[in-house]
UniProtKB/TrEMBL annotation:
Biological processes, Gene Ontology terms: cell adhesion involved in single-species biofilm formation; negative regulation of bacterial-type flagellum-dependent cell motility; phosphorelay signal transduction system
GO molecular function, one term: diguanylate cyclase activity
Reactions accelerated catalytically: 2 GTP = 3',3'-c-di-GMP + 2 diphosphate
UniProt keywords, alphabetically: Phosphoprotein
Keyword Phosphoprotein in annotation: yes
Official protein name in the record: diguanylate cyclase
Domain (Response regulatory) ranges: 27-145
Residues making up the signal peptide according to the UniProt record: none
Domain GGDEF: 188-316
Amino acid sequence: YVNKGNLTEIEHVIATVERIHRNRRIGVLVVDDSTSARAYLRTLLGRYGYRTLEARDGQEALDLLASGTGPIHLVLCDQHMPGMDGITLISRIRRHFSRTELCIIGMSNHGSGILSARQLKAGANDFITRPFLEEEFFVRVNQNVALLELLQEMRENANRDPLTRLYNRRYLADAGETVYQAARREGRGLAVILLDLDHFKQINDRFGHSGGDKVLVNVADCLMARARRSDILVRYGGEEFCLLAQDVDEKGALGLAEALREAVGGLELRLDGEPLALTTSVGVNTHPGTCLEAMLEAADEALYRAKTSGRNRVVQ
Ligand code: GH3
Ligand code: MG
Ligand code: MG
Ligand code: MG
């Protein structure tokens, strides 16, 4: 028999073990010119399971961050180092990595309080004064990592549609514009494929809104299975989906659109035990125009023509 007190203790141990296991995903870069200081910090971080990387100076840290050897979530940054000091390094890191991408804790020595303020101004999220108590070190590291994870989770949720878990229109406007500019600059082909399910209202009328929702999830999964890694697939509206495909010409885009139309039409859907036939109309645009928004408008006009000319077809 285990009394309640022991159970809480066991639960606490399990929670800690789980936390340590999850921390293996978290990369911490320790930047310090002192070998013994790096070894000490590595030992501390190891106790909480963090994946630790080390750099001896600012340039090595910047090279590591640029090389993308696994994601780095937290940088612990010494102030006094040969070559580049901590404040300079922090401001250079912040030119490339926002506060939603990584957090920085500056480390300065006792008696140099002004440096902490300067580290914060340069872009550090927090600072710690050495020598420190281990307890303070862990509180600052764990809290900053937890806050970063929360920020990333919130950003992810803001970019996703809760029903289908596809990206949403907001994400298309942000990430799609970057993709559009890069494609224009590099002279690569880009295609906007807009899909609108045919007579979707009838599905809601027959099977209720929750029945309609199930169909939308099935369609989203079906489209997702056919999208490439470089494609941006979003739920564009209620029963409208948009695929932004990179490196495709007109012929490729029309082929892809046709494949998507056939895939949706071929879905074997059942609601309340009844088989359900579903079709979709598709509008395609491969003309770059002046901006992504203009490409979307042209695809929408093509989609309108697909609807008025009989539905269940691809129109350019
Ligand atoms: P068509 O596009 O072929 O002209 O006909 P439609 O019946 O699909 O017409 P329309 O695009 O105007 O209507 C879309 C319908 O999709 C209206 C709305 O009730 C339904 N809808 C939009 N969002 C959702 C949703 O999240 N869940 C469900 N179940 N239905 C939705
Ligand atoms: Mg130093
Ligand atoms: Mg619609
Ligand atoms: Mg529709």
